[in-house]
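Bug #77: duplicate submission created two jobs. Keeping one. Sequence:
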Amino acid sequence: MIRAPFLPMRLFVALDFPNAVRDAIRQLIAQLKNESRNARWVRPEGMHITLKFLGETDARKVDAVRRALAAVHSAQPVDMKFHGLGFFPNERRPRVLWAGVEASPNLAELAADVERSLAPLGFAPESREFVPHLTLARFESPRGNELLVRKTGEPASMDFGSARESEFHLFQSILKPSGAEYSRLETFAFVKGAA
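Kept job's structure:
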């Protein structure tokens, strides 16, 4: 009998946030969409706060990933405020347009705990510092974005809303020609007693 190979799954761990925040971001994107020829805009329904990108993962590891994530806990929910805009690496050479996330200190601690819980399973630690943000657009080239950069300077203090989260999720990302589609595989309540 020939066994079918185990196909890898593209996985990540993330926090979700309320639809009211998504709606505010959707309105902003609608205002900015025509200001750059080479921006690839992210669909608001696919946005999330990534705690850990696992990448291509052997499907046989998924149960171990679930057990590791179920052991992650925090004493308090994570509080987040979504406001402001910026560029990675900077506005002179923009590659990514982002919305800022100001969070309670336990968000960084939660990301570190997720990281530590998955390290024994062979997931390499992140080399970059954890910076919570929402990616709004990616740019093919840093050129031709001058008008967009000027426009985003105007609503720099724009407020998109807030959230209090007590659970995170394991997502699968399926790459399609129309863009990535995300399916939630499992939800983990990280605050004891949180429903």
